[in-house]
Amino acid sequence: MTATLIPVPLPQQAYSVAISSSLTDIGSLLTNPEIQTTKLGQKMVVVSNPQIWKHYGQTVVDSLEKAGFEVTHCILPAGERYKTPKSVQKIYDHALAQRLERSSTLVALGGGVIGDMTGFAAATWLRGIAVVQIPTSLLAMVDAAIGGKTGVNHPQGKNLIGAFHQPRLVLVDPNTLATLPRREFRAGMAEVIKYGVIWDRELFEELESCDRIDQLRFLAPALLTKILTRSCQAKADVVSQDEKEGGLRAILNYGHTIGHAIESLTHYRTFKHGEAVALGMIAAGHIAVELGLWSTEDLDRQQQLILKAGLPTQLPDDFPSADVADLLLTDKKVKDGKVRFILPTKIGAVTITDQVPKAAIKKSLEPMLSGA
What we know:
Blueprint: E1 3-8, E2 15-20, H1 26-30, E3 43-48, H2 50-66, E4 70-75, H3 85-97, E5 105-110, H4 112-124, E6 130-135, H5 138-144, E7 149-154, E8 157-164, E9 169-172, H6 182-198, H7 201-209, H8 221-241, H9 256-265, H10 273-290, H11 296-308, H12 324-327, E10 341-346, E11 349-353, H13 358-365
Helix pairs in contact: 3-4, 5-6, 5-8, 6-7, 6-10, 9-10, 10-11, 10-13
Protein name: 3-dehydroquinate synthase
EC number: 4.2.3.4
Domain 3-dehydroquinate synthase C-terminal: 188-334
């Protein structure tokens, strides 16, 4: 077993992110007393989608069964539009059929959608059972699988139904990225760029120095390891200081406020989550410049890095930009009727403010509209 462990030292549920060379490590990791502080029950359900299950399902099941667990699986459709209470109901039905107990475990094998739904099902089944995250997309590896945010979408907004429920372990196997579609890889790079802007200037500058970051094959193994390790460490650092987003953790939403609105207004069919986050980061950057918080030079550096990652910088011709400001009022981060924005002040640092005029929101979208 070869694994780099990144601790997430939460007082109620401490756990580790294991960056491992193989999915076959999962069984031994879950039975390692130095990693697993709470003994897991015998029954496990692996939740996945058809594509990921075809590639990795049997490997995970074999490893878990070898470690002594009793394993079944539940397969859900792939895609953000299936991230709904109806899909979670399928997990509940399977849990009931398999007679899962409070000592049982759900294992999320897939990207952010599978991870969010499985985590939410675990948070709510029998008032909370264990969940293990095995992310197979770059976005899930560096962001969605870490930190305990779980949930599903409501027709009027993203992740409006959810709960905080920390995993017992997160296993990141970089080898699974080999089967990740190029577009999904690029979407994940948006979250990596986010960490560079909000937390890790060195990571941002390292990405700038690369010739290409839009495909996995252009990243040297050492650079990929650094991207995963520094991104996971940044997420762990922030979450360990603010588990339930009372303050600091809000900075992880950089690009997500307007990004979520873009996803919702395009019915989750036009953009991948990471693509919408990239657009949201561009908009947030323009707002920061408009408010005198950020330099146009750093705004351009962010734009160039987003372009280098092969991410979109334009909205559809028919995008209803006039509806964005009103839709933001349904965002989870609204407090006292005001939308909280995460705005950059320099590469590696951001500020949180609810003093963003509606006109500034509208103006931030104009550079991304055709003909602007």
